[in-house]
């Protein structure tokens, strides 16, 4: 098991903490500072100060890109620890974390680091003796609420474009998986990203998440999760300051297999579609429709394939599937 960073228990305004547990055993990994509305106010205030008066939005895109690349360098240096944190906290396979999740998060961050100095407006030809042009500017403070199934990928899917544009962010990781987000904030400080640019507020949806969605000083909110919560965020955003909203909401995704399919390949793909990442995927193949000509053969082979899929310790290289984290799936 990985060593849990001691900054996971930092002091905060509410004074409350919550437990993050190892889904393999149910053991407590760490006690995490629980953010409430007062803590969100503090984080948003820091983000607003950094945006209005700090140097991050006023850096050249090239300079922001360099800082983001330095953070990516640190992530590569600490891949083992980061994959271990997501393995212990989210039940994700350590091996896949090292070869897929963390490298993909690094690649995403580097992509947007490269885009930071390529954000351009346009000059427009208009009728009469006029000149028109567009100027693209950072929107301001961005609130980010991410789920537990891909803690690292979701963190950088959301913050990377915001950082490249010169925004500051307040991130609420899922209460089930806060550890890697806290570690990324630590690495960001080591990378030289100024204070107040990346703020992490661990906590629960009805308190910390709701405070972000309804905050009058948050300019935009990005959320990945359920349709039910997505509706609440849209409503809170509309009732507050009409902040812009970006939603990625999960759903059901069927597989349709016809008689002319390669049955063995179809079985393998259907097994991967539902069992990859423990089925905790927004587009998991949760239903399979099979044409009647190969139905019986498919079902027989699918049963064998499922029986051969090893459920166990995510730190064991022989394991195909770690423990479930959240009952929603």
Automatic annotation (TrEMBL):
It comes from the Eukaryota. GO terms for molecular function: aldehyde dehydrogenase [NAD(P)+] activity. Residues 14-328 form the Aldehyde dehydrogenase domain. SUPFAM superfamilies: ALDH-like. The keyword Oxidoreductase applies. PROSITE patterns: ALDEHYDE_DEHYDR_CYS (PS00070), ALDEHYDE_DEHYDR_GLU (PS00687). The keyword Transcription regulation does not apply. The active site is at residue 248. Keywords: NAD, Oxidoreductase. Gene3D superfamilies: Aldehyde Dehydrogenase, Chain A, domain 1, Aldehyde Dehydrogenase, Chain A, domain 2. PANTHER family: ALDEHYDE DEHYDROGENASE-RELATED (PTHR11699). Belongs to the aldehyde dehydrogenase family. This is Aldehyde dehydrogenase domain-containing protein. It comes from Aegilops tauschii subsp. strangulata (Goatgrass). The lineage of its organism: Eukaryota, Viridiplantae, Streptophyta, Embryophyta, Tracheophyta.
């Amino acid at each position: 098991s990985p060593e849990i960073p001691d900054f996971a228990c930092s002091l905060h305004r509410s004074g409350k903490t919550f437990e993050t547990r190892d889904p393999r055993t149910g053991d407590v990994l760490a006690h995490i500072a629980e953010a409430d509305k007062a803590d969100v106010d503090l984080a948003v205030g820091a983000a607003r100060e950094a945006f209005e008066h700090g140097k991050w939005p006023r850096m050249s895109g090239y300079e922001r890109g360099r800082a983001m690349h330095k953070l990516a360098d640190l992530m590569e240096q600490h891949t083992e620890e980061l994959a271990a944190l997501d393995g212990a906290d989210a039940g994700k396979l350590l091996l896949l974390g090292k070869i897929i999740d963390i490298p993909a998060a690094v690649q995403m961050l580097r992509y947007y680091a490269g885009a930071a100095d390529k954000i351009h407006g346009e000059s427009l030809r208009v009728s009469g003796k006029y000149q028109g042009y567009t100027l693209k500017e950072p929107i301001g403070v961005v609130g980010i609420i991410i789920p537990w199934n891909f803690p690292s990928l979701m963190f950088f899917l959301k913050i990377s474009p915001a950082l490249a544009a010169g925004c500051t962010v307040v991130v609420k990781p899922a209460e089930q998986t806060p550890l890697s987000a806290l570690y990324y904030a630590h690495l960001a400080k080591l990378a030289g990203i100024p204070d107040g640019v990346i703020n992490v507020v661990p906590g629960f949806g009805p308190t910390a998440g709701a405070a972000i969605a309804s905050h009058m000083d948050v300019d935009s909110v990005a959320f990945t999760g359920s349709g039910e919560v997505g509706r609440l965020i849209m409503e809170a955003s509309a009732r507050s300051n009409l902040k812009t909203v970006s939603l990625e909401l999960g759903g059901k995704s069927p597989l349709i297999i016809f008689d002319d399919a390669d049955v063995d390949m179809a079985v393998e793909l259907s097994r991967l579609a539902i069992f990859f990442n423990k089925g905790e995927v927004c587009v998991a193949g949760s239903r399979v429709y099979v044409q009647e000509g190969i139905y019986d053969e498919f079902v027989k082979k699918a049963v064998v394939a499922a029986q051969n899929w090893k459920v166990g310790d995510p730190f064991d290289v022989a394991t195909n599937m770690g423990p479930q984290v959240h009952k929603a799936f």
